[in-house]
Structure formats: C-alpha cells, structure tokens
Amino acid sequence: MHTWAGILAGMMLFVAFYAGGLSMFAPEISHWARAEPGRAGASQDADALLSAFFQAYPQTDRATLVLASPGNAAPYMRWGKRGEPPRLVELDAQGTLRPLAATGHEAGRFVDYLHRKGGLPLPLDASEPVIGTVSMLYALALVSGVIVLLPSLVKDLFVVRFARNAKRLWLDLHNLLGIASLPFHVVMALSAAVFCLHDWIYDAQGHLIYPQGLRAVEARAQVPRTPVPPNRAAWRAPSQLTADAARSAPGFQPTSLDYRGLGTPRAAVYIAGTDDAHFKRRPREGIAVLDPATGALVQDGMLPGQGSGLARTLVSFFALHFGSYGGEPVRVLYAVLGVMGALLFYTGNVLWIESRTKRLRGQPAQCDQPRHVRWVAALNLGVCLGCVAALSAALVAARWLAGGPLGPDGVLHGTYYAVFAACVAYAFARGAQRAATGLLAAAALLTALIPATSALAPLLAPLGPWAGALDKPYAHGLALVDALSAGGAALLAWMAWRTARRQAAHRALPAHRSVLPTPVSQHE
C-alpha cells in the first residue's frame, strides 16, 4: 500500500512540494521577474491620493489603496473588473492623478499555481480535485510508511549507511527524510486535501447541514451596523484607519486598504497587514475589517491574534499550511522542508526501481531491466529534474523578456512546459542512467542563471529601453531569491559532478561487475 500509493502520487507531489517551497517567496519572485515602471516624482501622500481618486472616480464600487513598502516605491490605487487587467493610478508631485503601468505578479502566481496544480497543464478548477485525491493517497502513504518502519524504528532511526548496497542507502535517506519531517507532512497532506476538495465539502455541507444556503446563515450571524454615510469626504483618512487597525491589534502593520461596497450603506474597508507574532489567514497578511466612516472594527475573525476561538482555529489551519507565522525564518524553514519533501518522493520512487532491479541481479541470463522499470526510472528522473530545470528557465525568461511585447504569462507557461517536455524526452531517449548527469548539469546551469541575471542587469540596463526594464533597485527580497538560487545551483552542480564521477568509475569496472546499472547504482 505504501509503495503503490507513493508510486502513483510521488512525481506529482515532487512538483507540488518543489514549487510549494519556492512559493514561500512568491512576492519576492514576482518582484525579481517583472519590469519596474518608472516612479520618479510619485507622491508619498496616501491620504491625498485616496481623496483625489474618490473625486475622479465616484462611481467605482471597489478599489484598493496599496501603501508604500520595500517592494513598492510609492502608494497607488488599483481597481477594475474581474477578469480584466487592473487599472492603476498614482499621485504626482503636483497632486494630479496619473496612470501607472501595471506591475504584474505573474511569476510568483505562476509558481503558486504550479504548486497548487502539481504541474498539470490544466485549469485550476480541473486540477485541484486531482491534487486533493493525490493528497489523500499521500496521507495513506504516510500512515502505511510509519507502520512499515515501526518494527525497526529505534534501530534504524537517523542511521544512514554509506555502504555499497544502494538500496540500503536510499532506504535510510528515505526513512530519515520522512521521520524528520513527519509532522510537516501530516499537516500538508490533511490541509491540502481540504483546500483542494473544499468545493465538494461545501456542496455536501449545503445539502446535509445548510439546505437553505450558507449565505443566509452568514447573514444571520453578522452584527447589525449603522449605515455608512455616502459622503466619502467625511470618512476617515487612510492614515487614521491604519492607526485604528493598529490599536485593535498591536503589532499589526497595514500594507493595503481594500474599499468594498462603495456606494452602499454597508461599505467597508478591508485592511491587509502583517504581524509575524501571530497566525495569519493569508500567506503574508491578516485582515482587519473596519467601518470607513468611524474606524470601528467590524470583523476581527481574520485579524492576527484576534477573534473567537473557532476563528483562531480556522486561521491556524491556513497558517500551518502557508507558513504565515514567525516571519522570514519560518518561510526559509518551510522552503527547506518543501525541498526535503520533494526529495522524499524522489527517493521513494528510486527505491521502487532499485527493488525491482535487485531481483534480477541473481539471474545471470537477464541483462536488461524490464521495460516498465526503465520507463518508470526515465519518467521519475525526467519529471523531477525537468521540474527543477524548467522552473528556473521560466523565471529567467520572464525577467529577460519583461520589457518586450510578449505577455509574462505566455513566457512563463511556454518556457516551463517546453523545457519540462524536453527534459522528459531526453530521459526517455537516453535512459535514466545516462541522462542523469546531463539533466543535473542543465538544472544547475539554469538555476545559476537567476543570480547571474541579477549581476548582469545593471551592466545591460544602459543599452536601451528594453534592457532598462531589467534593472531595478536591489531590495532585500531580491537578495533572498538570488541567494537561494545560488545555493540550489551549487548543490545541483555537486550532484552532477558526483554522478559523472561514479558513472566513470562504473564504466571502468570489469564487465562481470557492471551488469544491470540503475539510476541508483550510480551512487554506489
């Protein structure tokens, strides 16, 4: 049960965990990859910006004021219809609204979607139920794996035997990764299943518990409010509202104000903000809902550290999956655990391949691996290393082509799936054993292009308007992306060197000792 659940779900989970680890830095990745519009002369006065916006666009029913931050030089307003590109304006030094080119979040969103879809080239609505089912298989594999390990748990715990028995080495690594990160995997398996299958769960709730509809229940639970006066000039300014939110939750640092229901008596402002001392509903932010006229707190269920016990329990469920607590150290830890999780699935599949190959080593007449073992080995190598190489290639392409006519979504998707398909095809054409070194080297090279691009961008920026979009002020978040990429590239290069060295040693063995080479035997 453990083996087959792992084989069926392992490769998709590798993509989900690797992309999920990177998605911990989705805002920084978006900032790294996108073109930065010029913001010279932009006003820092958020209060004046909102006032000017309400005067210029009185019919707007929803708009967001994005405050200045390390990744945003000056405040701006964003609004628009669902499914259409957002409109942006900022205030210049003379107090006049001026349009602002949209700063996309496509790269970070692409990494997050890849994580949520497990790499499937399908719409999110179609792929999420698949990932939800895979997550249930994943939970089954975790439980069955612990049961399998129980008889030898004490003796083999944290033991890695670097002997010539490749299966034993990979089994020790697989057990070590699994036991060391078991709580993390239990949380991920259960929360991912709920997130991906929530539509089915809500439908069941509607039929069995709330036949009159969930919205009617929510409407009854809402606290009656005094109608909000329509005169927006009399509303509290953004600086006052952010201070109101900070008084309700000390440590809460607002990042944006989303005005909803404008033109209605139930208008409200949803203030998103950070507070690393508490669990947060979103990956980076919690939300305080205020009355825009009085500054009174309307809802506290999504405000970090506030709300009822049930609301806090629900928020903790999101926070444990997103790693939205503890700030940057926890995000780095989750990224490392995500990569360790990906390696857990890779080693599990390699164990399956090695087990079937080992059975044949006692049969002198048998010279070739069975076809299904060769296919699984090639698919496992091509999918796993193809994901690593393709994701790096897509981010680099998005950065270099950010100032060009091609849309960022097309560049990201086109580059990723083209490189991914090429890696899988190369693994099948060469066989897993012979393709390993080349794919590791390609993944290392493409990943190293990320910090190399950051280093070259300032040198190429003077070449023209297109190259000028590459350069941007070097913020702390960009250094994180470059540092993690440089570390990953170094690790991949070391693995490529070790694999090539062992393959060379393997070729030097006498013929009678070199039967049935497998992707695992390279590491003997």
Automatic annotation (TrEMBL):
Residue intervals passing through the bilayer: 6-26, 130-153, 173-197, 332-352, 373-398, 410-429, 436-461, 473-497
Record InterPro entries: PepSY-ass_TM
UniProt KW Transcription keyword: no
Keywords: Membrane, Transmembrane, Transmembrane helix
Keyword Transmembrane: yes
Domain of life: Bacteria
PANTHER family: IRON-REGULATED INNER MEMBRANE PROTEIN, IRON-REGULATED INNER MEMBRANE PROTEIN-RELATED
Name used for this protein in its record: PepSY domain-containing protein
Taxonomic lineage: Bacteria, Pseudomonadati, Pseudomonadota, Betaproteobacteria, Burkholderiales
